[in-house]
Amino acid sequence: MSKAFKEHNFMVVDLTDKVLVHTPVPKAHHAALRSGFAGYPANPRWNVSKFRAWKSGCQLRTALARGEMVVRQVDSMLVPATEQEEKPNQLETVPQNKRFRFPVWSKRVAASKQLA
Question: Where does the source fall among the domains of life (predicted)?
Answer without folding.
Answer: Bacteria
